[in-house]
Amino acid sequence: MDTVRVFQVAGFKNSGKTTLIRTLIAEAASLGLRTATVKHHGHGGPPALPDPDTDSMKFFRDGAAASAVSGDGVIQLHMREAETGPLPLIRLAAAARPDLILVEGFKQAPFEKIVLVRSAEDWEQLKDLPDIRLAVTAGTDAPGAPEVVMREDTEAIRGWFGRWLKGGTGHVHL
């Protein structure tokens, strides 16, 4: 059975998840690793779709279960599927043969993760998430966190993540 390394970033809306994911992508790239991302669309409704007048979107609008288009080295896929969590998205992202898949959101998913903590209230709600490895805080205490780094300390975050990458954990069976 195939496996892929998966690491997750969790936190509440506007806590800095996307910014942190971008930092993690840069760190992985500096180590020569190919990264894919999977994101939970937490804004209500479906994600924005491309121009409806393209052929691939006409197919999708007309009821195709999936519509894919390829050009100049980029593949775009739109697929109808009941929301079932991150694993189907991870399987799709694994088709790109990444060394690592970073997951944004899906707080309750059972992957090793960093949680972003803006306040004591955030930590109170996030502290029992599965497999927390690091809490990145805005000066807030995170009692019981395995490790804590200040949000502004990008070098410490990158260093921690580089050590995690070299540690070889986070493999998920597909």
UniProtKB/TrEMBL annotation:
<dbReference type="InterPro" id="IPR004435">
    <property type="entry name" value="MobB_dom"/>
</dbReference>
<feature type="domain" description="Molybdopterin-guanine dinucleotide biosynthesis protein B (MobB)">
    <location>
        <begin position="6"/>
        <end position="126"/>
    </location>
</feature>
<protein>
    <submittedName>
        <fullName>Molybdopterin-guanine dinucleotide biosynthesis protein B</fullName>
    </submittedName>
</protein>
<dbReference type="InterPro" id="IPR027417">
    <property type="entry name" value="P-loop_NTPase"/>
</dbReference>
<dbReference type="InterPro" id="IPR052539">
    <property type="entry name" value="MGD_biosynthesis_adapter"/>
</dbReference>
<dbReference type="Pfam" id="PF03205">
    <property type="entry name" value="MobB"/>
</dbReference>
